[in-house]
Every structure is written in structure tokens, then in C-alpha cells.
Write a structure and sequence with these properties.
Blueprint lengths: L9 E6 L4 H16 L3 E6 H4 L1 H17 L3 H10 L4 H24 L4 E4 L2 H10 L7 E5 L16 E4 L2 H10 L5 E3 L14 H8 L7 E5 L8 H10 L3 E5 L4 H13 L3 E4 L5 H7 L2 E4 L3 H10 L3 E4 L5 H12 L2 E4 L3 H14 L8 H15 L15
Parallel strand pairs: 1-2, 1-3, 3-4, 4-5, 5-6, 7-8, 7-10, 8-9, 10-11, 11-12
Helix pairs in contact: 5-6, 8-11, 9-10, 9-14
Length: 379
């Protein structure tokens, strides 16, 4: 809700529906801005590209990750160093996105633009000089941002680790960078009690229970692992995300294995995490940070290539996390070992830490006052 005298500032968040991580990051930033009296609009760069180009980009990404080693090769050999191939791909998407973002900003001027998607960062950088009063922030939660995250006309980069800071400086040595905590949405900061969550979800109080999810796309052997974990005596809360085929497979598993409860895309994840003893998921920063906020250990599925492999290593470095390969037998073996270890880390406080860090970022950018200023751009 805006304060009586109107919003303190206007923000544009540029996300991209290529996985749920970018969407969740944009929403967390929008929530933090709204709490400070800002108005915030979020646009989806994939949608702005149009159904043909946006759909082609998503199909290309899905096709690459479906072929073992192909996306790894593209990510590590092309995206990370920023080869001509990668820069050409970025330029092609940027050409289509720039006029649409320009039209949006002409109709809805912004004091602050936060790009949480690499293509969005490229496009906003291109048009930034057209809007000299607008501050541009790029927020990348990957452990090692690749070349296409780094552009001129960026006032500040937000990253979540020292390694990520160095990765940005590889391409822009004098960039203005802040290391911030992973933001999480409010529901994960005030989850229900374990007993309350288990009662609602009909999970026996003393049973071993895992939350099994693999991002919005449902990558990896989720259905097979759910069935095998149920057969091993574990209560399984299995989430398919937006993967309709996986959701149907999970419901089929649940029909023959009563320890498995199947869900599609759901907003009950904070409740499920509270009920679980272990969260089994991919190495996307959002879900891992959410599990740490609720205070649950992680078993990370090694199924996401490219940046996913970097993020996995970072999660292991943070502690309270295990790793498993994609074979469902390995998932079960490692899950049982993690459950037997019986450790339950104390809840983290990323929400409190994020809000403090975000306030400091806005102040450093001259945006804490009702009339924002504009510091010099990084080159």
C-alpha cells in the first residue's frame, strides 16, 4: 500500500521466466521496495520478446540441457568468457527487447531499474542514457556470473558471494559491487511449526519426511525418486512445479504409494519445508536459501548443468548440504544417509540481513530520500 503522499519512488524490475529463480528474485525486490513506499512494476523479458522469439529461446535452452554436456559446453566455453557466439546471441535478443522496454519506460518512467535477468541487463544498459535520472542495478544470484551479466551503464551490481564479485570484476575491474544475502519471500520467514505443518499435511509426527522438488521445470528423476523413497519408508512431499507431465507421473506414484503426496505448482512450499526433515532440490539459489531460512538441511540434485554446477558447489561450501547424482537409487541412498545424520541447522535470517543490506544499497545509490539522485555509471 502506498503512503498517503504517494510513492517515494518508481521502480522497474526486469525478470525472465526462464526458471523460477529470476521471478522469485524480482518479487523479493518488489516486496522490499513496496515496504519502503515505492511503486514497483515487473516485466518479463521473455514475454516482451514475443511468443516466437521468447518461445524459441526457451526451446533452445531446454534442448541444450536435454543433451548431456551440451549446455555445459555452451555455458563454460561461450557464455562465461563471452565469446563471439555468446555476444551475437545476446545482441539478437537485445535488439528485440530494447524497443519494447523503451516503450514501457516512456509510458511508465522509473527512478530505479533492477535487472535480475542477463538479457534484461543488456537491454537496460543500451537505453540507460535515454533516461539519465534512472539508476540501473544488476542483481545476479549465480555463484559465478557469466559475461552477459556485465555491461556499461550499470550503477551497481548485487551479488551473493565473494566469488561472484570477482567474476564480475573479470570483465569490469572497477565495477561498483555489493555482496548481499539471498532475499527470500516473507512466508519463508514465518513458517508454521513442524507439528502444525505435519498436522495440516497429514504427516505422522515421528515419520521421516522429505520435500522433493526440482525447480519450476521439474528436472531429474523426481517421480522415480519419490516412489523409491516412499518404498524405503519415507514420507515424501513431491512437487512438480510447472511440469504437467511430471505432475501426472507423481499422482500416479501417489496412487500406488500412500507415503507420497503429489503437488503441481503450489504456494504451500513454506509449509512443506516446515514439515520436512530434509529438502531435496536443485541448486537454484532461491529454494536453497528458502530451506536455510526455514532451518532445513539440503540434498542438492546434480541435474542442472552450466551455472547450476557452480551454484551446487557454493551450496556445499555454505554447509548443511549434501549432494547426489541424478540416478534415483543414489538420491534414495544419500537421502537416507542425510536423514540418519539427524542434524537440523538453526534457521538462517536472510530476510533480516537482506533488508538491512538493501537499505544500505539504496542509501549508497542516493535513493533513500524521496527524490532519488543518480551516481556515475560504471564503464
Amino acid at each position: 500500500m502506498e503512503p498517503p503522499d504517494g510513492p517515494r519512488g518508481r521502480a522497474l524490475l526486469v525478470s525472465g521466466a526462464l526458471g523460477l529463480g529470476h521471478v522469485a528474485t524480482a518479487q523479493a525486490c518488489a516486496d522490499s521496495l513496496a515496504a519502503r513506499g515505492w511503486s514497483a512494476r515487473t516485466v518479463d523479458a521473455m514475454r516482451l520478446l514475443g511468443p516466437r522469439a521468447g518461445g524459441a529461446a526457451e526451446r533452445a535452452f531446454r534442448s541444450m540441457i536435454a543433451v548431456p554436456g551440451l549446455y555445459d559446453a555452451f555455458h563454460f566455453a561461450a557464455l562465461r568468457p563471452g565469446t563471439r557466439l555468446a555476444l551475437l546471441a545476446d545482441a539478437g535478443a537485445r535488439r528485440q527487447l530494447v524497443p519494447r522496454l523503451t516503450e514501457h519506460l516512456d509510458r511508465h518512467p522509473a527512478d530505479l531499474a533492477i535487472s535480475v535477468f542477463a538479457t534484461g541487463a543488456s537491454a537496460i544498459s543500451t537505453i540507460a542514457e535515454r533516461y539519465p535520472a534512472m539508476v540501473h542495478v544488476v542483481f545476479c544470484r549465480d555463484a559465478t556470473p557469466h559475461r552477459l551479466w556485465v555491461h556499461p551503464n550499470v550503477d551497481m551490481y548485487l551479488v551473493t558471494s565473494r566469488v561472484a564479485e570477482r567474476a564480475v570484476r573479470r570483465f569490469q575491474p572497477h565495477a561498483r559491487i555489493r555482496i548481499v544475502p539471498h532475499p527470500v519471500q516473507a512466508d519463508f520467514c514465518t513458517p508454521p511449526t513442524r507439528a502444525g505443518a505435519r498436522d495440516t499435511l497429514r504427516i505422522p509426527g515421528r515419520a521421516r519426511c522429505v520435500l522433493l522438488m526440482s525447480g519450476g521445470w521439474g528436472l531429474g528423476p523426481v517421480a522415480e525418486a519419490a516412489a523409491a523413497l516412499g518404498d524405503a519408508g519415507v514420507q515424501v512431499l513431491a512437487v512438480a512445479g510447472h511440469n504437467a507431465r511430471l505432475e501426472a507421473a507423481l499422482h500416479a506414484v501417489a496412487e500406488r504409494q500412500p507415503r507420497v503426496r503429489a503437488f503441481g505448482f503450489t504456494d504451500r512450499v513454506p509449509e512443506m519445508m516446515a514439515a520436512a526433515d530434509l529438502v531435496i532440490t536443485t541448486s537454484g539459489g532461491c529454494t536453497c536459501a528458502e530451506a536455510r531460512t526455514v532451518g532445513r538441511p539440503l540434498l542438492v540434485l546434480d541435474v542442472l548443468p552450466g551455472h547450476g554446477r557452480d551454484n551446487l558447489q557454493h551450496e556445499l561450501e555454505l554447509g548443511n548440504a549434501y549432494v547426489t547424482s541424478a540416478n534415483h537409487d543414489d538420491v534414495v541412498a544419500n537421502a537416507l544417509a542425510a536423514l540418519a545424520a539427524g542434524s537440523e541447522p538453526a534457521p538462517a535470517h536472510p530476510a533480516r540481513d537482506w533488508e538491512a543490506a538493501f537499505s544500505s544499497v539504496l542509501a549508497d545509490l542516493g535513493l533513500a530520500a524521496p527524490v532519488p539522485g543518480r551516481p556515475g555509471k560504471t564503464g
